[in-house]
Amino acid sequence: MNIYLAVIIASLLLSWLLGILSDHLSAKAMKPTPPKEFQDVFDAAKYAQSQEYTRASMHFSTLTGTFNIVVIIAVILSGGFNWLDMLIRSLAFGPMATGLLYIGALGLISGVMSLPFEAYQTFVLENRFGFNTTTPGTFFLDRFKGMILTALIGGILVAGVLLFFRETGPFAWLWCWGLAVTVSLALTYVAPTWILPLFNTFSPLEEGELRTALERYADKNGFELSGIFVMDGSKRSTKGNAFFTGLGNRKRIALFDTLIKEQTTEEIVAVLAHEVGHAKLGHIRKRLITGFLKTGAVFYLMSLFLDSPGLFAAFGMEHISNYAGLTFFVLLYTPLSLALSVLSNMVSRKHEFEADAFAAHTTCDPMSMISALKKLSASNLSNLTPHPLTVCLEYSHPPVLARVRRLAAI
């Protein structure tokens, strides 16, 4: 058996089996009553609903994961990648257009196949538990906008990568790395004003107690904000959130309108303090640098396998091409990607604990952060007792119970 094919199929199956095992163990780890720290926000009915939501989400994840792996393996073994390549080659376009069409077609097929699952999750699963507020019009418009943005931005990236690998010899991976970093920084910089408003409305937070408290905290801790905005998160979901976006003098905080509705001023200040903690403690800078280094390593590894005859033989390809090599490397990279995601999640969870501690110390009010986390967990029907394997594989944030206990110790 082709060694590349064996590695790809084995890694896909391993990833799938780990997901099933993780869900099974998390289901067994559920407790009949909420932890004592959460009994003020979870009554018996609410807690039972959160467990039902967790089980339903896990079942849906198993269904989609199984469907995806069956389709991918079937396409590989049936020669579907070669069939598509020969079809596009028959159009007799140049190498660049052929490559863009091939990768674009794969992306379009994947998007179309995932659409029914996304619709079910939004309009059946999320609706069943009272989260969904999205209309069909908004749902499909979001996907259309996302497709256009992906085609534009992804097209630039893919075209650049194909061009560099064709024209710049053994150092092509360095050129690709530079392009990816440049595009990533540019998107981070312009996203607050050009991209995010395509999907949501961002309104400046009106003058009042909350804005005064947030600005006072930011000033006291030497953190400059270019703006505090309210995002119409209720347009799609009842779930609350807040996030920082932008770089340099474009840093701004966006508060979901659902968050403002549910949380007190002190709790929202604590949420802001947590986000400020990420910046002050260097987490954002570290994540950017780590991400850039990872991108460079991926392009270097890609350059080693991009035109490997064995890799193309694994997919039954009649022709070797850079554009198909990009696609196949993504699948070959699966086991390393899984290992790196586990490491990345571990570092991210550490950063979240540190940001919580920063918020507690700079506000001198850990109880407000605790209260904010507990309210969010109740309104989002969070799983309070995930199994450690699930946390290891999937959680970029520590389980909320662990965060509350750390804060209570402060």
UniProtKB/TrEMBL annotation:
The chain crosses the membrane at residues 65-84, 96-117, 146-165, 172-195, 323-343. It comes from the Bacteria. Binds 1 zinc ion per subunit. Pfam families: Peptidase_M48, Peptidase_M48_N. Residues 204-408 form the Peptidase M48 domain. Keywords: Hydrolase, Membrane, Metal-binding, Metalloprotease, Protease, Transmembrane, Transmembrane helix, Zinc. Residues 30-201 form the CAAX prenyl protease 1 N-terminal domain. Its cofactor is Zn(2+). Belongs to the peptidase M48 family. This is Peptidase M48. It comes from Pseudodesulfovibrio sediminis.
